[in-house]
Amino acid sequence: MSVMIDIYETEFRKADLNLLVVFAALMREGSVTRAAAALHLSQGAVSAALGRLRRLFGDELFTRTRTGVEPTPRAVQLARRIEPALSLIQGAVTGRDRFDPATARHTFTLGMSDDLEAALLPRLLAATAGLPGIRIAVRQAHRNTVADLLDQGRIDLGIAAAPAHGPDHRTRDLFDSGYTCLFHPRLLPLATPLSLDDYLAHPHLLISYDGRRGIVDDLLDARGLTRRVIASTTHFAGAALHLAAVPALATLPAHAAAVYATALGLTATEPPLPMPRYTVSAIWHATVTDDPAHRWLRHLVGATEPPVPEPPVPEPPVPGPPVPGAPPDSLP
Prior knowledge:
The protein is of the alpha/beta class. It is built from 12 helices and 12 strands. The N and C termini lie far apart (63 Å).
């Protein structure tokens, strides 16, 4: 046993554990300036620590970008082992092997798209209102990016529909959702449930990553039908806001549509064609599964799922070929 201790002591003399704290802060913040502020150090001190880290691991670790620093593949690999180890060391030093949200000072970073943020963040903020040391931060992400953000240490927990993931990730289903059609009743005084004729007769706002088409267009194409799209945006909230000034329709995820309808005085109704449902899940890196703070975060998110109202019974669907399966990240 004494030989083993001598070996570890020799290695630890080379690696000041405070350097690993700086490493973790750089991974989390993605910026020397923000890492310095979080650690209450000067930027010069953090830069010097980064230089020592680079010599220690024989790698650049972080490269400069216009917005901060980007971890190298070696840094991402190291982060998966360093973050859990630091958490264990902190518990050993402080004598705490549990997480007390009433006294903790902790920032949890979630990765999700703006429709999920609209549905979940207000409830998360309400649930943590009495916890002065708890802060919730949100980064924009979707099902194809959450895993990489987790691996890079940029987020603590991802929330997405059927998130893409690998063997190093864990997931938990949160709730099911579907699609809802929104419009402003003053600008478009339409009867509900909305008929297919009315749906096709009026212009649409499209929410799309490429600005060209969404799941609605795929479903209409399968029936030999088309709609008139007058504008597109990449944000669900933006489309909902525009409906207050534009006589148009927008088809959005049901969990977000319920929030926007209440906040903006919009009418929400079932789309007049069959649309798929999907499951929204939480995703995290396996290395933090047993971390007390992360367990608390997962419980918090799981306990604040949005109440998705049962959709009204739609008019009989238009005959046509079977509805094609739609990837949950397809936008309307």
